[in-house]
Amino acid sequence: MMYEEIVVIGTGQGRLMMFILELSEEDYICKKALNIGDKNSYAIHSIFNYEKAIYMADSFNNKIYKYDMISNEVNETNVGRDPRHMCVDKENMYVANFESDNISIIDLKNFLLLGSIPAGIKAHDVIYSEKNNCLYTTCYEENQVLEYGLTTGKSRIFKTEGKPMHLVIYKDTIIVMTYFVNGSIHTKINFINLYDGKIEKIIIIEGLATDFQYDYINDMLYIINIVDKNLYLLDPLARKVINEIYLGGYPEAVTFDKNNIYVTNSKKQEITIIEKNGPIKNSIHLQFVPDLIKAIY
User: Fold this and answer.
1) Which of 241, 294, 227 is nearest to 264 (CA)?
2) Considering the entire predicted model, what is its pTM?
């Protein structure tokens, strides 16, 4: 049985690489290996795929790289300082820059930097809502989410409990993953009403959650906890955790396709494949150390 193609950022022999892999039940086929460079000279914080292209945010060199899967070409453009996460509308890409406190605007067609939008202090994640043509970005240092209207230019602020890292828009709710330090680090999932800005519910996860992905196919949130080594499945409608799956090792990142969840594990040097109803199918050992992962479908 073959699975969907996935993109993995990993290291091998001192080099940072981008791999396009086709997974099977027990093994994988490497369909593309792109040498990014010396692992000490690059820091790919996130990857994003859109219309047969793969984008990578390099927080070390303040660049976004674009790999065109059709032409096999690689291009780059400069953005703000310490770019973290990306999103797109139909014409532009938006990049949250952690150290320059703004959002870069990139023209998708020509892959050129057009300008920037001011954001709060330590902008980390950014998402686009087609429903109201707005950007939402997490402002880590200010414990808030900033809404920016692309048509109106107006902004609103939503306060969070804890320092916000990742977010999604679910129906009329902003769901935000935050860090809360009180002797030890806790992760808090904030459910914020999109209209009145009130926090309606908070789910506490003990330890440090890192990756946070919304599965729009199955209406499910997947959360990686690097302290207890678990994958959390959170139902955003019921607003509760419905399953915890122990992975061990050092789980790094999570992605999904129509049928499965995929988690990279750097300590075990493998990708774990999990059915969406919970059971672990199998783990595939890799010839490199994996970090980021994204399914292409």
Assistant:
1) 294
2) 0.94
251 vs 12, 147, 199, 210, 258, CA distance in Å?
18, 31, 30, 9, 21
Helix (H) or strand (E) holding 262: strand 260-265
Q: What is the CA radius of gyration of the chain?
A: 18
Mean pLDDT, each 10-residue run in order, the chain (297 residues): 85 93 90 93 96 96 96 96 96 97 96 95 96 95 96 96 96 96 88 97 95 94 96 97 96 93 96 89 95 89
Encoded tokens for 206: 């003990």
As beta bridge partners, residue 202 has 190
Distance between CA atoms of 7 and 68, rounded to whole angstroms?
A: 13
* CA–centroid distance for 178 within its chain: 14
The amino acid sitting at 171 is K
b/e map of 141-153 (b: 16 or more CB within 10 Å)?
Answer: ebbbbbbbebeee
Assign 140 to helix, strand or coil. Answer: helix
